[in-house]
Amino acid sequence: MSTVSQFALLFIGGALINNILLTRFIGLCPFFGVSGNMETSMGMSFAVVFVMMMASTATWVVWEFVLAPLGVGEFLYIPAFILIIASLVQFVEMYLRKASPVLYRAMGIFLPLITTNCAVLATATESAKPGFFKLNIAVGASLSLGQALIYTLGVSVGFGFALITFAALRERLELAGVPRLFKGTPIAFITAGLLSLAYVGFSGWFGL
Amino acid sequence: MLKSLRLVIAVLVACVAAATGLSLTYAWTAPRIAEQDRLAEERSLQAVLPEADDFTQIDDPAVIEAATAAAEPTDLQGVYRATRGGVDEGWAVKVASRGYGGPMQLVIGLDTSGSVTGVSILAMNETPGLGTKVETEEWFMAQFMDLPPGFTDTDVRALDSISGSTRSAHGVRNGVAAAGRIFAEVLSVMEGGS
Amino acid sequence: MAEWFRTFRQGIAIENPLTVLMIGLCATLAVSTQLKNAVFMGLAVVFVITMSNVLVSVFRKHIPSEVRIPIFIVVIASFVTIVDLVMKAFVPSVYQVLGIWIPLIVVNCMILGRAEAFAYNNRPLLSIADGMGMGTGFWLVMVILAAIRELFGTGKIVWFGSTLIALPSGYEPPSLLLLFPGAFLVFGFMIAGSRWLNERSQARAEARACRR
User: What domain range includes position A121?
Assistant: First the structure.
């Protein structure tokens, strides 16, 4: 397979076919937590793209040059990766607050929330430790740093896309006549179910 | 200064304690995990070639290279030569094929003439109750055994699928088709070499 | 003792992590395709939350508050890894299905939340009650969801190869329930149902109060 088409597959596979929110159920807390409002969804999506890219780079480097050579990856990767991500997010937050107040206002409040977001941990782990996720894209192969980053970009863009679509749907729901018992969360879940049904349609594209 | 030293020590102590505890747990469980993996592999090899009493993994790089190329679009994970009392019984092929929920690890057994003796699933991630029908619906697995020796992709494609688990069934069929191609490839390389 | 039981019950009903607080959804929805998986996943979560609560509570006087979060994370991640390795070694068939969800327990906000909000400020014994209560509350909802999805999605409930309950053979199971969208749909209806139950019991309590 040529490099370009493999990159395209990694991106589309991560963004649509294996959409992390709607077909893998990963990262649902922010999906239901912030989707009530369009603006916060945008901020969250932006922050997720940013953090995921950094987290994947960091875990890939640590796995490749520290954990794997030392042979301790099998049992230390969970604490190591989560600590790396948590401290990374903390440093970025401190740096942004000083260096770029504009950027900090746009996504600063979302950064701490993302630390305990399973989507970030799952994607970073998949990028570094191949086969963790059981994805169709990388059958048995480990990812190079470039592939890992393209894949992460795909996943995070897919995350943002799904989140923003869902926020738009929920804004419309505010105006709809929903039975009293279903108002709020229950109808949000049912809507998510229908949206997820649409994503089932992507499965099988390009044989993935 | 003293204060921040205390903080650093607290975190360090926690990390060292955690790492020690985990390496002890790993030392305790690792042999068992390896044993479980070995058993699972042995069981699946035995299931597809019940007559054989010994399986040797082929490690000749020329054979592996040819077989890997023949396995596309599936991913070759191992070729085994099965013998019974030193006499050739057939071949077993381990491949990872794309299913619905991710790669499925399949083991396919072939007798010396090249017809399928059995297919077993070593690992899969299919939807329980739907995709897993490939394993529970017996007729589906049985139909591979009726394939003629030296079967081709077209023969495999003509077999029935399972409604509601098309993608999973497709994954298994791709695996079997790959096994057929690998069989032809391995034989020609080995004969060419000797 | 009474306080112990009150803390335990709190997690199951009043502050149920799933239906009331809406945390830890990911794993619940993903593994609830089969009762068996949900039971083992729940066990893993109860173990991790109870153990991390105990450890945090025992050492709470020695953990400086400035670095408490990283230390909690290390504690939780270690217990998660222990569960991961032990399951892989002793119940490989279950581990294979739960797969990535065991490592992902580490980011279940519920566990970090309980360490921070409860165990860091309470005695070990009470922290056990809190951990077990919260864990059991999580477990119950997940098991009910899984039972509904498995029973109506496949027509029967299977436990390690033996069928526990089966619907009449004329029943055509809608496979939608087993697929990803089904989890969202069933869970949406479950929340609406639990709301209805809460409202009804509240209305009854009010009616009783009025009569007096």
Answer: 8-202
